[in-house]
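Milestone 3.1: sequence recovery, worked example.
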């Protein structure tokens, strides 16, 4: 076995970026690939979707029912679940979402202020609020990690 002439440069940004991408891809493996309209999930006996890893993602039937009763029918067709929030180290205290129906839903449910608006095609919510929403509506919200 020959000794390495020089150790790998861990501080090298490309090495760190590659490693981070691999780890983030693993974390995002449980994210749903094709989000379904609330109306479709309400019609399913066992509401489910498929994750990036190819595994089934089962929605909490009680939560789907609560959303169905709490939201008007036009949102049943527009809202796709799970609601996806993106988090990145660039914005350590916030998550963003690009889904206008999700913003309308969260306003209607009283989870975000009716004054909250979308800027540049996305709206921002603090991470603690996103985590509280996830606890209140399990399986209806997911977080995607980014670099």
């Amino acid at each position: 076995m020959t000794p390495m002439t020089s150790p790998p440069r861990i501080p090298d940004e490309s090495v760190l970026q590659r490693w981070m991408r691999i780890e983030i891809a693993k974390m995002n493996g449980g994210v749903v690939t094709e989000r379904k309209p609330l109306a479709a999930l309400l019609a399913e006996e066992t509401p489910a979707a498929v994750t990036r890893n190819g595994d089934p993602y089962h929605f909490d039937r009680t939560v789907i029912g609560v959303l169905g009763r709490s939201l008007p029918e036009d949102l049943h067709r527009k809202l796709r679940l799970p609601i996806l929030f993106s988090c990145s180290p660039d914005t350590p205290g916030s998550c963003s979402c690009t889904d206008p129906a999700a913003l309308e839903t969260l306003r209607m449910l009283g989870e975000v202020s009716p004054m909250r608006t979308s800027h540049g095609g996305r709206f921002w919510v603090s991470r603690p609020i996103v985590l509280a929403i996830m606890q209140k509506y399990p399986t209806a919200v997911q977080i995607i990690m980014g670099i």
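Helices lie at 13-27, 38-43, 61-70, 73-78, 100-108, 127-136. The two ends are 37 Å apart (CA to CA).
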